[in-house]
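Long-time lurker. I teach an intro course on protein structure, and each term I like to show students one example going from raw sequence to a predicted 3D structure in token notation. This year I'd like something fresh instead of my usual example. Would anyone be willing to generate the tokens for the chain below so I can use it in lecture? Attribution to the forum is fine with me.
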Amino acid sequence: MRGERKSLSGVLADNLSRQIAEGLLRAGDKLPSIREYAEANGCSKNTVISAFDALAANGLIEPRRGAGFFVASAGKAPQHDEDTRTLDRAMDSVWLMREQLQSKPGVLNLGEGFPPVEWLEETRLDHFHQRVVRTGVASLFRYGSRFGYLPLRQHLQQKLAGYEIEAAPQQIVMTHGANQAMDMVVRYFVRPGDAVLVDDPGYYALFGKLKLSGANIVGVPRGIDGPDIAVLEEKLKTHRPKLFFTQSVGHNPTATDTSAAKAHRILQLAEAHDLIVVENDALADLKPRSAMRISALDQLRRTIYIGSFSKSVSAALRVGFLACDAHLASDLADVKMLIHVSSSEYCERTLDAIVSDGHFLRHTNRLQERLRRATAAGVVALGKLGAEIYKVSEQSLYLWAALPGHDDSIELARKMLEHNVILAPGTIFSAHADGTSKWCRFNVAYLGDERFVKALERCR
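-- Reply from a regular --
Happy to contribute to a lecture. Here you go:
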């Protein structure tokens, strides 16, 4: 939520909960349909769905299949307990995730977090199924190792060596994507009330995880060459956090890279303040191998490196990994067992077959070339609109930009949604989202679509 400036779905949810508390809506009363409520309030159906979801989660209303939504029999005025506040704080992140995971015909998703499907489908996942079945049919019927499929971890050892990070297989734990890796780290280190440092702006899904854990999220402003070191040092002294989540290469959402000088200083501060740096490198395959990683400077002493193949192979495989000190890796593998027992050996065998094939290197090279062209074209497209670009990158999946005449990106996103264009408003990427932001994250692959310009003209 946004402090005093709540999202529209939050306002609708508050209005309905107030009506229930005051007895204007009684137990068993049927609510207007989603369509009727959207028309009456001049908003989209998605906004109403978000409001209804929040009320249902708090036990105030209940869906009845084929009949609609009704005031719950045990409906009460919302209690301002920690569970309710936690859900509210995470809601904006959930909204953006929900929008990004839906595939809607006729909708242009400029807030998309992945490369276009046509960029990835040349990996031809179907070609590798028979190879996986021939070499490991038993993996289709059992749990895998708590660390993950060993041959894939051995390939990741070579991949990390290409980034000048030395990691033995026992230092690598396979996960259900980068998001589970972050979740495992949060569950292991963070207790309610603990301070955790994050890039601000930064990865919105991480903020949701930290809010659900009850962490005290402390933002470190992100400059064009990495985190603000002066603020980082001050926050370390004031809050004494255990963790700092950051993204040193192809930062989401600003497309910035951390400079070598700042990376060295971050590690000096980590040593002085007993801090662990969690480096999210989910976009690694979209950037040059020569790009500087903090983990390469530290060699996993005070760093945890998180990687993923969602952006370069397929998000549907849900294969990610983390690399860290061997003792910590063993502990985190145990955490994974408690959460999910194991990761999918079938998916890991499939990915191992893909990355073992010589075609994969050619695929990532083509992917990067496409990204360079799309980034250059995206810069031109935003320039024609008079947009302010935070940092012009040579190749990045995203551009962080502000459109003239639109100082509140949330309001702009609502208006554009009415014209079937989905934006990723900057407020959602803020650690606290307690104000307005003029910035939006744009996926460079879609900036050339004429529907964007037409929708923007209608909003004006």
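Some talking points for your students: Residues 75-91 have pLDDT under 50 and may be disordered. The domain at 8-83 is CATH 1.10.10.10 (Arc Repressor Mutant, subunit A).
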